[in-house]
Automatic annotation (TrEMBL):
The lineage of its organism: Bacteria, Pseudomonadati, Bacteroidota, Cytophagia, Cytophagales. Belongs to the AHA1 family. Residues 16-138 form the Activator of Hsp90 ATPase homologue 1/2-like C-terminal domain. It comes from Dyadobacter beijingensis. CDD domains: SRPBCC_CalC_Aha1-like_4. This is Activator of HSP90 ATPase.
Amino acid sequence: MDTTTQPVTVQATIHAPVAEVWNKWNAPEHITQWCFASDDWHAPHSENDVRVGGEIKTTMAAKDGSFSFEFGGTYTEVEENRYLAYTLGDGRKVSVLFEQEGDGTKVTETFDPENTHPVDFQQAGWQAILDNFKKYAEA
């Protein structure tokens, strides 16, 4: 990985209590409902073992069947209802902070960008997924 690349952060405030947001973020039956960036994609499968050394695996796929990929990593830190950190298969790091903010929960996700796509493209994609999560979690 190019170590000169700075981590990228995306954020959203969800109007729901932290424990509810944490559950919708981590339970596979919820992950499959929100873990995609646009309506022409979906997440047909997810597994999530939320503990240090546990793995998260989510299949993201175009609904027309033209493309799919596995998104996944291994947890390095887990603090229930507060913080997650994991390492992706290619060694990049991801962290997610859940903070109570008034009657809502601020979710801050930070990730190491990959070197294939422009950083602003990656940030927009991760933000779109987080925005989709917000929409789902508040529904």
